[in-house]
Amino acid sequence: MALAIVPLRPLDRGHLHAMRVIALLQGAALILAAWLAEFLIEALPAPGLLVGPAALIAIWLAGFAPVRRWRRWGYAFTGSELHVARGWLIEQHTIIPVSRVQHINIGQGPIERAFGTCHLQLYTAASLLVLPGISRETAEEIRDAIRLRIGSAG
Amino acid sequence: MSDASNTGVRRLHPAAALIDFVRRAPASWGSITAVVFVASRDPWLASIAAGIFALISAILAGARWRAFTYSIDASNGLVIDQGLLRRSRRTIPAERIEDVSTEQGPMQRLFGLVRVRIETGGGIVDEGLLDSVSKAEAMRLHGLLRGGEAAASGHVADSRIAAPLFEMTAGRVLLHGLFSFSLLWLAAIFALLQGLERITRFDFREFLDIAEREAFARLSVSSALAAVALVVLLGIAAGVATSFLRDFGFRLTFEDGRFRRVRGLFTRSQTVIVDRRIQVGVVSRGWLSGRLGFAAFEVQTLGGSDGPAGRHELAPFATEPEIAAVLARTPLPRFEASALARVSPVHAPLSALRRIAPWAVVVAVAGWFWPPAWLAMLPMPLLGGFAWHRARHHRYALRDTSLQVANGVTASREWVAPFPSLQSVTVQRTLLQRWFGVASVFVVTAGAGGKVAPDVDNIPGDAARALALSLIARADD
């Protein structure tokens, strides 16, 4: 990450495939919506005026975007805080100290399950940080380490 | 307390059902009747509809009253059961109850009842609300749930025990109102006219046309000035009225580590702010009232607040010494204005750009369809200029025990965020910021509501990195 606050690790490779699948679904939905709009609106000068751009966007969404977006994510767990970085147009690097974590959740959607990744949710008194696309072992390691730190402190 | 009478299941005061019925009237059967009347223009049909729906509403209010029960027991604390179709049971353990605060709206005052709010540490959603019970019952609850304070603080909506830490005289409330210019009434009148037009046969548009013609016929500088003066006067009147309604008899006392605040003209509300739960403090000044030495002091607490922007107002309109006196009782350190450093010089132009850009896009799109819309670009330099000037005074510093941030110069906010209040830090950089080598640091604090926070905008990239890491390091201490 260009912000270079701490060295970051990339997300799990499996998450890239999960992102591609989701992007495919989104692209398909977009094309369907455009086709439906064309079907309903009769005032279009030429057929394919809506579906064309929609198809182009869908191809970019599913073909080229996922790798770019996947590369923009990074995380690091230093033992006393969790760093999560994301974004390209708007880069964001969020840091949550372990001492502020109220509770932790590990979740896994159906697509994530297919590719063996899950997401970690850290709740503080005033915010929620989500780290998607890490393997279950990593997530559980982080969770256990945080619980240990919190347990020993309080 | 193992007194049997204290553990019984109780209901709200019967008059609470009546208050509930009246309160819901406009939204429920009132609006249905209005719709029927407008659709059919037949007063008889509307009256019959009103009668039927009012009866249904009354029966429902009674059923809701019957379904609402609460009880206190030693092991569970306060248990509230409510709901007609969806029954819900809310259990609030006694240890989590921070305070029992009370409120009296005009309807409650009529019946001598009180609205009791059980405040916990968990935020608004975890509160218990008893709307409404008798004053005696409120005192009993206060005593039971807050332990031995019954004698001292059993006086509902009337705390003359401690000498006030901060008080607002009627004159001060008036002054505050004069500075709270409000044009909401304009919108209200327009909405009212629209509504009236549909109900009666009177054609307001025709009336307005005639009025417009007459106005143009007699248009002169003096009449235009008179119209503007009228708008201004009405705006000021609305501001004063709002101020009196909200802050009449404002009284802040401090005792036993808690602030007790009483305010309001028709709805008298009493709130407790526990000292050790105060997280962040903000002092805000308006552009004119600030010049005259007045400011507002608000705090964020653990568990949030139902004040606007999620903060508790400890002093809505006070002088510097008065604010210093209140601040001294909080765990917050003093605000050290002289110790703050400016952010990057790039912040002012970027800020102006951010203010103008969306507006410019909208005007450009509108102008493409309708050329006269381009006129809306005229105020743009002024808006940009204001944003620029305001942004020039954005300053921040890491002090001994807190992060302190200041914004603006005429209408300004000064933040004091002690390190323990920090929950998370985000460093953000947009494409534009990357070109200029700056970044912003967003700080999330406990008890934050609303959209403003002690964020530090547009400091050099290295400084942002250092600030974020320092904040995290201090938060860990």
Give a description of the structure.
The complex is a heterodimer of chains A (154) and B (477). Chain A has helices at residues 13-40, 51-71, 110-115, 136-153, and strands at 74-77, 81-86, 90-97, 103-107, 117-123, 128-135. The radius of gyration of chain A is 20 Å and the shape is elongated. In chain A, 31% of the residues are buried. By secondary structure, chain A is of the alpha+beta class. In chain A, strand 5 (117-123) and strand 6 (128-135) form a beta hairpin. By secondary structure, chain B is an alpha+beta fold. In chain B, 43% of the residues lie in helices and 26% in strands. The model of chain B is unreliable at 1-5 and 148-160 (pLDDT under 50). The chains are: A alpha+beta (154), B alpha+beta (477). The A-B interface holds A 2-5, 80-81, 89-97, 99-100, 124-127, 129 and B 302, 422-431, 434, 439, 444-448, 461, 465, 468-469, 472, 475-476.
Question: Short description, anyone?
Answer:
Chain A is of the alpha+beta class.
- What sequence of helices (H) and strands (E) makes up the elements of chain A? HHEEEEHEEH
Shape of chain A: elongated
Largest sheet entry of chain B: 7 strands, antiparallel
Shape of chain B: globular
**In terms of quaternary structure, what is this?**
heterodimer
Q: What is the number of beta strands of chain A?
A: 6
Query: In percent terms, what proportion of residues of chain B is strand?
Result: 25-35%
The percentage helix of chain A is 40-55%
Order of neighbouring strands in the sheet with most strands of chain A: 1-2-3
Tell me the radius of gyration of chain A: 20 Å
Instruction: Kindly report how far apart the N and C termini of chain A lie.
Output: 34 Å
Mean pLDDT of chain B: 82
Total helical segments of chain B: 15
- Secondary structural class of chain A: alpha+beta
N-to-C CA distance of chain B: 41 Å
Q: Beta-strand percentage of chain A?
A: 15-25%
